[in-house]
Amino acid sequence: MPFHFAYAEYATRLAKAKASLVDRGLDALLMFAPESHYWICGYDTFGFAMFQCMILGADGRLNLLTRAPDLRQAQQTSTLSDAQIHIWKDIEGVAPAANLAALVTKLGYSGKIAMETQTVGLTFANGQSVVSAFDQPLHNGDGIITELRQDKSLAELDMHRRAAALSDDALDAALQGTRAGAFEGDILADMQGAVFRGGGDYAGNEFIIGSDQRALLCRYASGRRHLDPQDQLTLEWSGAYARYHAAMMQTLIIGKACKKHLYMHAVAREALEACEAAIMPGQPMGDVFAAHAQIFGKAGLGHARLNACGYAMGAIYNPIWVDFPMFYENNPRLMRERQVFFLHMILMDSDSGLAMCLGHSVEVTAQGAKRLSRHAPDLFEL
């Protein structure tokens, strides 16, 4: 079965995860995050909506507990053997958490055990049932795999670059189809179609589109309209290749840009370039946000900005492609080479009813930020 990465890559990831457990004195980690499953062995499914858990032992063994619909999913997308895949049966009164505790005991893990909790792969109710099923306290396992995922391999960086090319293709499609009278649904279809035709995947959340007053939204909402002769259209989207993302954001002008739109774009571009200049390995992420806030504040647009200006990109699952960590005020986390970030300069001015957003993804290199997009952050009047 062909995987997205070579077996050697997965072996390296498993060795790093094993060492991280040993360093923490853990006997095993209960992984519920789909991103952890995908990263460590390639297991690719939306079956995390139901109860499933991957057990990583400090001895380097991996075992998956899941439902029957994901048996072949695990066989065909992961490095797991049949002996490493365990099925809990859908039947009235079943307690999969008890099955999990029994499996952990069967595998011989009796020492300190941690579990992931900050994930869409574990509901509160299921988390409570897991805690209750074990006869020993479970420790916090959040951040163990997440931290390892932040340092991208060369092969992962290639996936991000391919995702960025798909994002560019989607923007090209939007620019071709955006005009007075165009239907938002057609623009979305063209953008998503460009990604699929390029060999890409569904992104971690819906593409965001909004015109007129909905151009001031930075979340997806249902409902479509046709563009007016003078209009504004905010788009946020991401190409996805092998689940890896490279998000972009742009407000397009239908007709001629007014003076306020021109000013907002000039300031947003200045802020974007200032944020890029602030990205450097070993520097705190808060410096990037400070550059963003300073530019907007000096320009008299501080009231229209948000309280974050970007976040990490990775192989992320629904419902949102936001990865950890994020650019916000005073964030002390130090940036590292081979991280990938999405920078977004979002201006939503409710007083004037105008929006202007610019954003693209960058790779952190030894010399600083490297843009992944082939598009410059220009103003488009269509």
Describe this protein's structure:
This protein is an alpha+beta fold. The chain has two domains: 7-149, Creatinase/prolidase N-terminal domain (Creatine Amidinohydrolase, Chain A, domain 1, 3-Layer(aba) Sandwich); 151-371, Creatine Amidinohydrolase (Alpha-Beta Complex), CATH 3.90.230. The chain has ten helices and 14 strands. The strands form two sheets. Strands 7, 8, 9, 10, 11, 12, 13 and 14 form an eight-stranded antiparallel sheet that branches. β5, α5 and β6 (139-140) form a beta-alpha-beta unit. α4 (96-106) packs across α5. The chain is elongated and about 70 Å long. The termini are far apart. 45% of the residues are buried. The mean pLDDT is 97.
Outline the secondary-structure elements.
Blueprint: H1 7-23, E1 28-31, H2 34-41, E2 53-57, E3 62-66, H3 71-77, E4 85-87, H4 96-106, E5 113-115, H5 124-133, E6 139-140, H6 144-150, H7 154-177, H8 184-197, E7 208-211, E8 231-241, E9 244-254, H9 259-278, H10 286-298, E10 308-312, E11 323-328, E12 340-349, E13 354-365, E14 368-371
Parallel strand pairs: 1-5, 3-4, 5-6
Antiparallel strand pairs: 1-2, 2-3, 7-8, 8-9, 9-13, 10-11, 10-12, 12-13, 13-14
Helix pairs in contact: 4-5, 7-8, 9-10
